[in-house]
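ok trying again, last paste got cut off:
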Amino acid sequence: MNAERRPLEEQVVVRKTAKLLIPFVVVFGVYMVTHGEIGPGGGFQGGVVIAAAYFLHALVHGLAEVQRVIPRRVTDALAALGVLLYAGVGVAALLRGGRFLEYAALGAPGDVVASRALGMTLVELGVGVTVAATMITIFNEVVDDGEH
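nice, full thing came through this time. structure:
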């Protein structure tokens, strides 16, 4: 009982399922990044989930197609931007008289809760963007055959 193998381009069910699933995976990853400070998840986990959507797209449509959608220069810029966002929150706290990543120093003096929420969300966003971009870059380097 050897089933006939067909190229992935002919696998309509797999392609349609992936096309339907990818937006939900990305939304769930963004949710994990933005709500990581109050529940399960966080920047690292959310970034990996977002990168997994990229991996699924690459597996179904091919590496050339997915690199056309998100070019290497974009992932390189996003990785740097995420690190800058993370460090920028720390520097902003220093400039406002607090310690590095002291979230309470970011907002109005009496509004500690909102300041902490803002600081944590921005740090988690920076980590999430960096992790997703780095995972995508690693994937591209491992899978790339050198012809691009």
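cool. The chain has a mean pLDDT of 87. The longest helix spans residues 112-143.
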